Amino acid sequence: MSVTPFVHFDSSELPAYLAQASREALDALDFGVIGFDAQGIVRRYNQFEATAAGLPTDKVLGHALFTIVAPCMNNFLVAQRFDDAAADGTVLDDTVPYVLTLRMRPTKVLLRLLATPGAALRYVLVQRAPRGASA
């Protein structure tokens, strides 16, 4: 029996963990995971995010993150940071407070933006406040 180590949203080991994690391991996390390739196509999407966002996996995988799935993130706060890091060949690991607005009541979240030069995937991680907590 394999035990998935628990990693936190703000863990420094998270980028390496995500690169090797199985689908089941991603689904065990208590925050949203959206992994996308250099063309912006979503390749990984965990169950936590599917449930929280109300977007089933089959409507997300294989689609463009910033134009089809989450156009509310197609701005200088999110999408542009990935573009800039890719153009500069630098590591991106930023956490930003954000308000998700597409297809839902405005929802305060923390987004962690992860990209490493040469890595196959980039990630947007979504941490929602626990019910009843103020963000």
Report on the architecture of this protein.
The protein has 135 residues and is of the alpha+beta class. It has a single domain, classed as Beta-Lactamase, CATH 3.30.450.20. 25% of the residues lie in helices and 25% in strands. It has helices spanning 14-20, 23-27, 47-53, 65-69, 79-88; strands spanning 32-36, 42-45, 92-100, 107-115, 122-128. Strands 2-1-5-4-3 form a five-stranded antiparallel sheet. The longest helix is centred in the middle third of the chain and has 10 residues, at 79-88. The chain is globular and about 35 Å long.
Our estimate of the beta-strand percent is 25-35%
**How far is the N terminus from the C terminus?**
37 Å
Main sheet summary: 5 strands, antiparallel
CATH class: Alpha Beta
> Care to count the β-strands?
5
Helix content range: 25-40%
Secondary structure tally, helices:
5
Q: Write down the overall geometry.
A: globular
Radius of gyration: 14 Å
Q: Walk across the major sheet and give the strand order.
A: 2-1-5-4-3
Could you spell the SSE succession in H and E letters? HHEEHHHEEE
Output the CATH topology. Beta-Lactamase
CATH architecture: 2-Layer Sandwich
- Return the domain count: 1
Mean pLDDT across all amino acids: 90
